[in-house]
Design goal:
mainly alpha, 123 residues, 56% helix, binds zinc ion, 3-stranded mixed beta sheet
């Protein structure tokens, strides 16, 4: 379920959306951003596929899991047909907004790999 809101308690500063388990919150001003919606929907789908693993990984602050999760969601956002984000911009977000200790270049390579997997029907 995706809920549009103006609440900065639900969507922290420097983010446009945020998924919490099976629910995602997106700022109302991004209502037409289909790429962002696809990103948050990917988090929801991943949660539904493995709710306990997702919950424990989040609870432990598992950075590897978080990185994988964001790469999967941003790859989908990069491939959105109406409002894609560039791979460069997605790599910059991953490297600077999540405290993941990763360089932008490395995030770019992970995104390129994931996009390749999706395009070949492997993810
Ligand atoms: Zn995300």
């Amino acid at each position: 379920m995706i809920i549009y809101t103006n609440s900065r308690r639900l969507v922290p500063e420097q983010f446009a959306g945020r998924a919490i388990g099976p629910v995602a919150f997106i700022l109302k001003k991004y209502r037409d951003d289909t790429g962002l919606r696809a990103h948050e929907q990917k988090h929801i789908d991943d949660f539904k596929a493995a709710p306990w693993k997702t919950f424990w990984s989040w609870l432990r602050g598992d950075k590897k899991w978080k990185l994988r999760s964001e790469v999967r969601a941003f790859a989908v956002q990069c491939l959105d047909e109406s409002k894609p984000i560039s791979v460069y911009k997605a790599a910059a977000f991953i490297a600077t907004r999540y405290g993941l200790d990763i360089f932008e270049q490395d995030a770019y390579l992970l995104l390129a790999q994931q996009i390749g997997k999706i395009e070949r029907g492997l993810a």
